[in-house]
Specification:
- It is a single chain.
- This protein has helices at 24-41, 78-88, 93-97, 127-130, 137-153, 162-172, 213-224, 244-249, 267-275, 291-299, 311-315, 327-339, 341-355, 360-380; strands at residues 8-13, 47-54, 70-74, 103-106, 118-122, 156-159, 179-181, 200-204, 233-236, 259-263, 277-282, 303-306, 320-322.
- It is of the alpha/beta class.
- The strands form two sheets. It has a seven-stranded parallel beta sheet, with helices on both faces. Strands 10-9-8-11-12-13 form a six-stranded parallel beta sheet, with helices on both faces.
- Helix 7 (213-224) links the parallel strand 8 and strand 9 (233-236).
- The model has no long low-confidence stretch (mean pLDDT 95).
Length: 384
């Protein structure tokens, strides 16, 4: 029987990684690549991976790191399929992908319908429950209403941090034995030899309400009004429609000419963007992990981050924590790292050491264990 004497056959929803790989998309791509690397290196062939994609416009592109995966690339609009899946729980993944599978892994908090496969979901964060006003589209429509039921029906819930695991337990009532903490890995980058003296303050993430860009701009205005001009501020990331007010603000004094918006940065270009930074700042109200913080530490960039969500856990004491509700505190954290070379050097050294604890190979190992657990749970209930 497959999954017992044969390989565990897993179908992964790859759709978040089809276009711009931010957040969940980067996690989905790198986890998939690490699982495939594990499968290629395993002489016992204990894992078989299929990638599911569905979009009217975007196709599942071939990449060397995805070698060995079976590809299921359907021309069905994402919104249409999600509406069918979320509201009717139809059609089954096995029917669409030509299964059977042992495990189907959803890359978001709602289940992929399945006939007999064990079901795994990924919950990156639960900010949409407390603050639906920060979301839009189907996330606002479906996630708050359905996530509790879906999470409690899932055989295993994958989360990226201990913080998110605690939130899933507290807010959704999911038992500890059905949670799998699969933290992201650090990128395979070479730390820069030294910080640039003329570097910039970097923010890299999607420009959306949860990221607290408005308070960052308030803090930067305070720094501009101080006795020592701060380095330029670079905002890197795709701008959601809600960000238009921030973009208009940086076109006008006192921010005009001092703040630049780069837009979305392709994964192949991110290392260079971090390499030019004097420091990295992430003042988010909530993060389920905070992958850019890990990327900054890997590049050797000192970090100033909010003392909320998972950010203190990820940073592990290797940076400066600030109150995201207080622009003066954010400004002071930035000022300290900019002006105190000893502090900046300590943050860099501790950040590099901290980043070494995160490896995608370990993420893949934990995910594989989660698939085995999900399959065992499904079998114990007599569904397989």
């Amino acid at each position: 029987m497959c999954g017992a004497s044969g390989p565990v056959r897993v179908l992964i929803d790859y759709r978040p990684a089809l276009r711009e790989r931010t957040g969940a998309g980067e996690y989905t791509h790198e986890l998939t690549a690490a699982l495939l690397a594990r499968a290629r290196a395993d002489a016992t062939r204990a894992l078989s991976v299929a990638l599911f994609s569905s979009s009217w416009k975007d196709r599942l592109r071939r990449a060397p790191e995805l070698c060995g995966a079976r590809r299921v690339d359907l021309r069905i609009p994402v919104r249409v399929l999600n509406l069918l899946w979320h509201r009717l729980e139809w059609p089954a993944a096995e029917m669409l992908a030509g299964g059977p599978f042992d495990v189907v892994h959803s890359s978001h908090p709602l289940l992929l319908p399945a006939r007999g496969a064990a079901q795994v979901i990924t919950i990156h964060d639960l900010d949409f429950l407390a603050h639906p006003e920060r979301t839009r589209g189907e996330i606002r429509r479906d996630y708050p209403a359905l996530v509790r039921a879906h999470a409690n029906r899932a055989d295993v819930v994958v989360v990226p941090s201990r913080f998110t695991a605690g939130e899933v337990q507290r807010l959704l009532g999911v038992a500890t034995d059905r949670l799998a903490i699969c933290s992201p890995g650090a990128p395979d980058w070479t730390p820069r030899p030294r910080a640039p003296r003329d570097g910039y303050i970097l923010f890299l993430s999607t420009l959306e309400p949860r990221k607290n860009v408005g308070t960052l701009l308030d803090a930067y205005e305070r720094l501009l009004a101080g006795p020592t001009p701060p380095p330029p501020l670079v905002l890197a990331g795709r701008a959601r429609p809600e960000a238009e007010g921030w973009l208009d603000r940086i076109r006008r004094p006192p921010l005009a000419g001092r703040v630049k918006h780069l837009g979305y940065v392709d994964p192949s270009e991110r290392e260079a963007v971090y390499a030019g930074a004097r420091l990295f700042v992430m003042p988010s109200f909530d993060e389920g992990f905070g992958l850019p913080v890990l990327e900054a530490m890997t590049a050797g960039v000192p970090v100033v981050a909010a003392d909320r969500g998972s950010l203190p856990e990820v940073l592990g004491g290797a940076g400066v924590l600030v109150n995201p509700d207080d622009a003066a505190d954010v400004a002071e954290g930035i000022r300290r790292v900019c002006t105190d070379e000893g502090l900046a050097a300590a943050c860099t050294a501790h950040g590099l050491a901290r980043a070494g604890h995160f490896r995608w190979s370990e993420t893949a190992a934990r995910a594989y264990d989660a698939y085995r657990r999900a399959l065992e749970r499904r079998r114990s209930q007599g569904h397989v």
